[in-house]
Amino acid sequence: MAEGGVVAELPLASQCWRLKSYGRWVPRQTGEKTWKMIESSDDLGPLTLTIVQSGHFLVCQGHTLLEGFSLIDAPFFLKVMPKSDHLLFSVKIKNECRMFRVQFDGANFQEAVEFSRDVCFRLQQYTVMGVNNKMQNAEDVITGSEEQDLQGRLPICCLAQSFLEGVKLSLPLAYQHSTLQAEDLGAFLRLCLLDHRFPAFVEQVESELQKIVHE
Asked: Which SS3 state, helix, strand or coil, does residue 17 take?
């Protein structure tokens, strides 16, 4: 892992940046909203933001997935607003909305700002970047009946175990978003089955899932 905010290159031409903090917009018991902040730590693992060449966006703390979605049709559900060394994200799918923000970690403030700009440059390949002058006033971004939060962390090992055991995992709506239509998925699977290497690939996937479960 490289020093500073950028992590060494990962498989599938991924690029990864180290984060100082991650915040989720959640309700208080009083009914008001506030930011629930998570800091990078040695105990729980580093906070990282990863963009994979396939178009997948991930925010993780160690082996725990905090955010994960495909950027392929991002203009239809994603708003991103940069401010200094922060990025504010608003994810809206149907009537459910989720808002979170990240702060980048660098050797100094200027380097953290550069990492934020790097991510903006990558995200511009998928969606239009917004301008946010009121990051602290998050209610300006999500209001009214659309304001429904998707709570909780999602351990990667639990996802892997659900696939192996064939157990249906109850996911928030934002994590159920798929960029493939049912007919496209069927055609894709038929092409995979015609490939003589596909059975071996499936076995390798199962083996890797077993490793993740026992990490």
From this structure: strand
The one-character DSSP state at 145 is: G
**Residue 1 and residue 50: Cα distance in Å, rounded?**
13
Q: How far apart are CA 50 and CA 119, in angstroms?
A: 9
Supply φ then ψ for residue 139, to 5 degrees: -65, -15
CA separation for the pair 61, 157 (Å, rounded): 13
Question: Both ends of the chain: CA-CA distance in Å?
Answer: 19
- C-alpha 157/C-alpha 95 separation (Å) is 29
How far is C-alpha 51 from the geometric centre of its chain's CA atoms? 9
- When pLDDT is cut at 50, 70 and 90, the band that residue 181 belongs to is low
Matching residue, tokens 């998570």: 38
Given a contact cutoff of 8 angstroms between Cβ atoms, the answer to whether 89 and 80 are in contact is yes
Please enumerate, as own/partner, the contacts of 93-96 that have beta carbons within 8 Å and a separation of 24 or more. Answer: 93/173, 93/174, 93/176, 93/177, 94/173, 95/145, 95/146, 95/148, 96/148, 96/150, 96/172, 96/173, 96/174
Percent of the chain with pLDDT over 70: 70
The 8-class DSSP code of residue 169 comes to P
Buried b (16+ CB within 10 A) or exposed e, 28-52: eeeeebebeebebeeeeebbbbbbb
Calculate what percentage of the chain has a pLDDT beyond 90: 23
Query: How many CB atoms are closer than 10 A to CB 152?
Result: 11
Give the Cβ contact number of residue 120 at 10 Å: 14
185/179 Cα distance (integer angstroms): 10
CA distance 12 to 48: 17
